[in-house]
Structure formats: structure tokens, C-alpha cells
Write a structure and sequence with these properties.
Order of helices and strands of chain B: EHEEHEEHEEHEH
Largest sheet of chain A: 6 strands, mixed
Strand content of chain B: 15-25%
Shape of chain A: globular
Number of strands of chain B: 8
Distance between the termini of chain A: 38 Å
Low-confidence stretches of chain A: none
Strand order of the largest sheet of chain B: 1-8
Largest sheet of chain B: 2 strands, antiparallel
Number of helices of chain A: 25
Radius of gyration of chain B: 18 Å
Distance between the termini of chain B: 34 Å
Strand order of the largest sheet of chain A: 2-1-6-3-4-5
Oligomer: heterodimer
Low-confidence stretches of chain B: none
Number of helices of chain B: 5
Strand content of chain A: 5-15%
Helix content of chain B: 25-40%
Structural class of chain A: alpha+beta
Mean pLDDT of chain B: 90
Shape of chain B: globular
Chain lengths: 616, 164
């Protein structure tokens, strides 16, 4: 095959047995790769309604057709499993050398089942697949694990993706980190699934080549994209990076502050992207095959956290969740917290929201100093917050409660703390105050993996001024749908969304790239339909897990507490407004009003097997 | 001194390894960093640059070859011979090159050295998105860094005058 390696590797950790299956052209064209592959493989390999920590819960790694070629930002992979945080489909994306190495070893996807009886790591050395003892790495950070594995194998070029202590301790928002801990498949707690399988790491060494169908034309298009990627289309990512958002959002009154109590932060200037670039950024390297380069590596040069260096980029979501959201205006403490999360292998957004939820509980006396083990969890107290992050990773004391995510923690604590548990479907929210970004409110509420800005870019319509962001209308449903399908195609190719503005007509250009790489004929409309198919498939997975319309919800605070400050003051999304938008979304999707999938729609998307099982 | 070779500016290089893929594509028609004549060097977390053959004045690789299979032609390029005095892939040249610029072809088992894509423009230079790679002589490189350093010093000296 061109582009694809054409093979899927299955590994059973119970028995150590492996098998390799071939991909068909039909499968490739229908599901593209990345998230599309991972979703289909998960749907086919998982039994319904099992516990996410059941050994039979499948863990899937999938790269995309353009990975390993000159196509810019194509070296990404998707991880999927049933999420221990949401109970629905969990999928996360990471990037750089590891996915390229997986393809060089000869596999488009890796499907892992079972549980090893002791800690192990998987070593994929081209055709040779081994389970190796991971005793020495157990308890270590992803970076240390990579070093130990390279040392043991005597090969400095082995690429490793690994979990940290948090994954081992089944912290429900543990992540998976690759390439010296620089990149994370962050969200939905897939690191905990890896931990539950006693699988510390997947090390890969690949020596095979990747061929494309039309090298000359592909090269020309790629070189043009490289040039565009040095221009205004990517200025934001190359110069300040995503932290540029911080001051912009503060001005727009949509920067969630102190666990979403406010939408502006009085110390925003101190934790802005501008501050970061001037005082902390030491280097801005790129992922493998990326012409943009957005990784703002930070170093603390003075104060109590001198010498703290982030392994990878500090990005807006990390900055928001661990900064303003916890009332922290001291930049070095935020870097320190991010580095701790990287060390233990935890999602920085979920960690930040768990901490800020605990802080609000503490300030409202729902948690006392006895509960917190002596920590004075006031907003802004960064010393306490750093200790708390340690305790979450170790599941010590109050950390044990928070390690389950804010949904479970608030249900367990009760006393009205559910009101300010900022999550959708159990996934903690990213840094967009959706009370004043109503298209985003809908977009975040409906994504299959929960509150997420990567699976739905609906905020772009609000922030870009395409629509009146403070108004809720039925036709926002169509925008939310288009944004989701678009993201699904990006996540399946797999391309980085930071290059999106380099395309004039994304579907047509991406379809062309797909054809040049794989040799399979692909049209813009077909590719768009593949995106829609993948979203419907994710939905089908969730329905099989027991999803109902009430799971597409907003947190109580978003519907009850109006924004108290900034230019969006007074805004919130009422339940009536939300229902109007949700109806609009299901209608645009061609779904039933209760959100279930009509047979006709599923047949139209070529999901016949699912139509027969659950079509209404 | 007049020989041009592939020079990488470490301040511009972002370690994307696109040069490696472009090289393997032009030389072998496929994508595989192991088939590249230019090599990315990354020392976490801060140093990044790519290295290809520097066309040394007195190349150690040529001296080291026990089979006399490596020669330097009049333009300075290192030629690996596969007929007559034949490269058998022993790796002595790889060990001898202090730049780490030579590698072994994984399938053919012979040394691979950058030939500047002559007579065309080097593919890696064309591909590099950050313009970190250039075809230049050592004199040109030195002059560039000389200029930069002088500018820095002048800026420092006259920083209060407002003229710079």
C-alpha cells in the first residue's frame, strides 16, 4: 500500500500472543486513519458496558495515512479506549516521532487487549514484538522511563510512549506521554487504562520505508504549505503560541477564573503569553515533520522554583487551568505545576479543574483543613496547590478523592458541590467561558468525549465574530456539526489543527493530499462524509454504553450563575436556550429528537451493521 | 576554503527532521530517515541542528577506508565506489568522520555521503521550512556570524545613544 503500511498489530497481554491483520482499501477510505481507525477498532473489539479497567477494554493506538511523509504536521497518533473518566469513548491525540516510528515498524494501528500479570513494556522492533519486564521503570516518570528503556535496549533511537505514576495509580485523568515527555495524549484518562493493564510503555524501533503514490506532485504541494506555514496563517502559534489567548480572552471576558466564578483575571498581565515569551521561553522547537514549530519550552530563572524546566510546550489550556482558574498569578508556580503534571503523567486541564474545585469547596467550608490534610486550599495559594498535585498523583488523602475527576468527587462529597463541578460528561472543561460563547456551549456539550475544544472548534464562530456570541439560536446546531466533522477529518488524517489556516479549501486540499499519498481516489465530499461517519460512529459507541439526551448537558454553573464581570457580564445559557440549540443540532445531524441514530442516516453513511443493531 | 557544503544555523533549526525525509525522497524515492544523507541532531531540550558532509580539506573518511573505496574529487565531494575498489560497508569511514555525517545504507550495505544533489539545488535546502539550511562556504558562515556578533557588541555599546 502507499501511505498506509496496510497492517494492524494485535497484542494480547494475557497470553503475550500477537497477530497481524491486513487493512482493506474500503476500510481505509471509510475511516481514513487516526481517530477514525481507532473508533472503528474500538467499537468492533469492545463488549458493551464493561468497566474501563476490565482487562478486555481495548486500548488502541492509530496513526494516519500521511504520517511519515513530507505532509506537514502529519506525524500524529490517536489513542482510544473506553474512558475511565467519562464512561464513554475516550480518545486523545499526541504527536511527533513515536507515531512515525510505529509506521516505520510497519503498523498503522496497534490494538492492545488483556492485562499483564506484572508490570511490562511492549517492545516493537519491526516484525519482532516482545513483552519486557518493566520493574525498573515502575513508579518512574515518562521521561525517566524512556531513558531506562533506551539504556536497557542499548538503542538511543528507540521511541517511547509511556505513563507516569498517575497512570499506575489509576488516576482517572492520567495521560500517555511520548518523546521525552514532550507530547501527551492528554485527555480522558487513557493513561489509567494503560496502568490497569500493567503496561508501562510502548517502545518502538522501525526501519521500514513509507512510499507514496505520487511523490513529485506531493512534494510540490508540501513545499508550498511549508512556505504558507511561515506566514500570518500560523503567526499565533510560532510567536507567542496558544498562550496568546490569555489576554485576548481576558479582554473578551471569557477567561474562566477561580473555578469559573469569574470570567476575567485581575492578574492576567502577569501570566500572559507575552510574559511567558519574554521571561521564560528558552527554545521553540517543532514536532517531527512540522514546519510551524510551536513548542514553547520554558525555564524558571529565579525565585523558589529556579531551574524548573518544562519538557515540552506550556500551552494556553495548561496556563488557564493551573493559573487563573486556580487564582494563581505567579508564573513560575504555574510552570512548576505543569512540570509536576508532566512528571506524574496527568492531564493538566483536569488536574487544574480538580484543584480549583477543591479550592472552592474549601473556601465555602465544604472541605475543612482536616479533610485536606492540613492544606490551606485558598485560591492563589500556590504552595498548597503544588502539594495537592503531588497528593493527587499518589492518591494520598484528599488527593484520592480528586484523582477520580470532579464529576465523581463532587458526587461523593455532595453538599451542593456538584453545582461548581466544571465538567461535561465527566471531562473537565477547557479555558473558554461558554456562558458568553453560546455556540461553543453547544459544541462542547455534544462532543462524544465530553467538554472539549479539540473535537469541536465551535468557539471560533463566537470569538471570530461570525455570530453574536451572546445569543442562542437554533441554527447554531449546524455550525456545531460542521465544526465537529471538520475536526474529525483533521484527527483522522491525522493533521495538526495549527496548520488549518494554511488551507484555503480544506476538504478539497486534504482530499488531494490523501489521493497523492495513498493512490486511493478521494473527493472533497467523500472526505467530509468520512468525518460525519466517524462522528456518528463515536455517537453509536456512546449509545451502546447507555448514552441518553441528558448526557449532552452543561454544568449547572453555566446555566445558573451569570458571568459577574467583564464585557460579557450577565450572560449565561438558560436551559431553554440550550434546548433550542440542542434540537437544532440533532436536526442538523439528521438524528432523532432524543439524539438516537435513525436507521436511514446510518445506511446513508455506510454504517449498515450499526443501523441493524441500534438504528431507530 | 571555497567549497560549499550544507550549513545549518542552529538558531533557526527547529528539529523537524523534514530535511531527512526530503533527502530520502530525492535519493531513494521513499520516506525513511535511515536513508538520509543529512542527519538531525537533537540534544534535549535545547540544541538542534542537522549535519551533512562538510567536504573537509583533508577528509578523515578517505584516509580511514581500508578498501580505498572512498575518494575526494576535485570539487571536494566524497565519492563512494561500488566498482573496482569497492565499499564493503565495514564502517571505518563512519567511525572516522568527526561530524557523524556518514551512514550505512541499510539495504545495500554501503556508505552514504551527501553529494549536494549536484548538479541540482540540494533538496534539503529547498525543503527546509525555516531556511536554517544553506549551501555556503566556511568563509561565508564565518562572515555571517562575525556580522551578528559585531552587531550585538555595537548594540550593547551604543544602547543608550538611541542611534541603533
Amino acid at each position: 500500500m502507499f501511505g498506509y503500511t496496510g497492517k494492524i498489530l494485535y497484542v494480547n497481554l494475557n497470553t503475550g500472543k500477537t497477530k497481524v491483520e491486513s487493512l482493506s482499501e474500503e476500510f481505509c477510505k471509510k475511516y481514513i486513519g487516526g481517530v477514525g481507525f481507532a473508533t472503528r477498532l474500538l467499537y468492533d473489539n469492545n463488549k458493551p458496558r464493561m468497566d474501563p479497567y476490565n482487562p478486555d477494554n481495548t486500548l488502541i493506538f492509530a496513526s494516519g495515512p500521511v504520517g511519515g511523509t513530507l505532509v506537514p504536521t502529519g506525524n500524529k497518533y490517536s489513542v482510544a479506549s473506553k474512558s475511565p473518566l467519562t464512561g464513554f469513548i475516550g480518545d486523545a491525540i499526541s504527536c511527533s516521532f513515536w507515531p512515525r516510528e510505529l509506521k516505520a515498524a510497519g503498523y498503522d494501528a496497534l490494538v492492545i487487549k488483556g492485562r499483564a500479570d506484572k508490570p511490562i513494556y511492549l517492545f516493537i522492533d519491526d516484525d519482532k514484538v516482545q513483552l519486557k519486564d518493566a520493574k525498573a521503570c515502575w513508579g518512574k516518570s515518562p521521561i525517566e522511563t524512556e531513558e531506562l528503556i533506551r539504556e536497557e535496549l542499548g538503542d538511543a533511537f528507540v521511541r517511547v510512549t509511556a505513563i507516569g505514576l498517575a497512570g499506575e495509580k489509576l488516576v482517572r485523568f492520567a495521560c500517555i506521554s511520548n518523546d521525552s515527555g514532550r507530547h501527551n495524549a492528554g485527555r480522558t484518562g487513557l493513561g489509567a487504562v494503560m496502568g490497569s493493564k500493567n503496561l508501562k510503555a510502548v517502545a518502538v524501533r522501525g526501519t521500514k520505508t513509507i512510499q507514496v503514490a505520487n511523490l513529485d506532485e506531493l512534494k510540490q504541494i508540501c513545499y508550498d504549505l511549508y512556505e504558507k506555514a511561515q506566514g500570518p496563517a500560523t503567526d499565533k502559534y510560532r510567536i507567542l503560541g496558544t498562550p496568546q489567548n490569555l489576554l485576548v480572552f481576558n479582554r473578551l471576558g471569557c477567561l474562566p477564573t477561580r473555578n469559573w466564578q469569574q470570567a476575567t483575571f485581575e492578574e492576567a498581565e502577569k501570566v500572559s503569553g507575552e510574559q511567558m515569551l519574554e521571561n521564560f521561553v528558552t527554545n521553540i522547537p517543532a514536532c517531527a515533520g512540522c514546519p510551524i514549530a510551536c513548542e514553547h519550552v520554558c525555564l524558571v530563572k529565579d525565585g523558589p522554583y529556579t531551574g524548573t524546566q518544562s519538557p515540552g510546550s506550556i500551552d494556553y489550556e495548561t496556563l488557564y487551568a493551573l493559573g487563573p482558574n486556580c487564582g494563581i498569578g505567579y508564573f513560575p508556580a504555574i510552570i512548576k505545576a505543569a512540570v509536576l503534571c508532566d512528571h506524574y503523567g496527568m492531564d493538566t486541564i483536569s488536574t487544574g479543574l480538580a484543584v480549583s474545585w477543591a479550592m472552592e469547596c474549601y473556601e465555602n467550608r465544604l472541605l475543612t483543613q482536616t479533610d485536606t490534610g492540613g492544606l490551606e486550599l485558598r485560591f492563589g495559594n500556590y504552595e498548597a496547590y503544588l502539594q495537592l498535585i503531588d497528593r493527587i498523583a499518589h492518591r494520598e488523602g484528599i488527593g484520592d478523592l480528586l484523582a477520580n475527576g470532579v464529576k465523581r468527587a463532587s458526587e461523593q462529597l455532595g453538599k451542593g458541590s456538584e453545582h461548581f463541578a466544571m465538567h461535561i460528561k465527566g471531562l473537565e472543561l477547557p479555558g473558554y467561558d461558554i456562558r458568553g460563547l453560546k455556540t461553543a456551549a453547544l459544541g462542547f456539550a455534544v462532543t462524544a468525549r465530553g467538554g472539549c475544544h479539540n473535537r469541536s472548534g465551535a468557539y471560533e464562530f463566537d470569538i471570530g465574530g461570525v455570530v453574536d456570541r451572546l445569543k442562542a439560536e437554533k441554527d447554531r446546531g449546524k455550525l456545531a456539526m460542521e465544526s465537529e466533522d471538520y475536526a474529525a477529518v483533521f484527527d483522522s488524517m491525522v493533521l495538526c489543527k495549527f496548520i488549518r489556516r494554511c488551507f484555503k479549501d480544506f476538504y478539497a486540499e486534504a482530499a488531494r493530499l490523501y489521493t497523492l499519498v495513498t493512490g486511493f481516489k478521494m473527493e472533497a465530499g467523500e472526505l467530509r462524509k468520512a468525518g460525519e461517519r466517524i462522528i456518528n460512529l463515536k455517537k453509536a459507541f456512546n449509545i451502546r454504553e447507555g448514552w441518553t439526551r441528558k448526557d449532552d448537558r452543561l454544568p449547572p454553573r453555566v446555566m445558573k450563575d451569570p458571568i459577574p464581570d467583564g464585557i460579557a457580564k450577565g450572560s449565561l445559557v438558560t436551559p431553554e436556550e440550550f434546548d433550542v440549540m440542542l434540537d437544532g443540532y440533532y436536526e442538523a445531524r439528521g438524528w432523532a429528537n432524543n439524539g438516537l441514530l435513525p436507521k436511514q442516516k446510518l445506511y446513508e453513511l455506510g454504517l449498515d451493521d450499526i443501523a441493524e443493531k441500534m438504528g431507530v | 576554503m571555497k567549497r560549499k557544503f550544507i550549513v545549518c544555523d542552529p538558531y533557526k533549526c527547529v528539529d523537524c527532521s523534514i530535511c531527512e525525509l526530503a533527502c530520502s525522497a530525492i535519493k531513494e524515492g521513499v520516506f525513511n530517515p535511515l536513508l538520509s544523507r543529512i542527519h538531525m541532531v537533537r540534544i534535549e531540550p535545547e540544541i538542534s541542528m542537522s549535519i551533512a558532509c562538510c567536504l573537509c580539506q583533508e577528509p578523515d573518511c578517505v584516509k580511514a577506508c581500508p578498501k580505498k573505496a572512498l575518494t575526494q574529487d576535485e570539487t571536494g565531494l566524497i565519492r563512494v565506489h561500488t566498482v573496482g575498489y569497492k565499499c564493503d560497508g565495514c564502517g571505518c569511514c563512519i567511525a572516522a568522520c568527526k561530524w557523524g555525517a556518514i551512514a550505512l545504507h541499510p539495504k545495500e550495505g554501503v556508505a552514504m555521503v551527501c553529494d549536494l544533489c549536484e548538479p541540482n539545488e540540494p533538496e534539503c535546502v529547498k525543503a527546509c521550512p525555516k531556511e536554517a539550511l544553506a549551501l555556503a562556504t566556511i568563509v561565508e558562515v564565518a562572515r555571517e556570524s562575525e556580522k551578528e556578533e559585531t552587531a550585538k557588541i555595537l548594540k550593547e555599546v551604543f544602547k543608550d545613544s538611541g542611534n541603533l
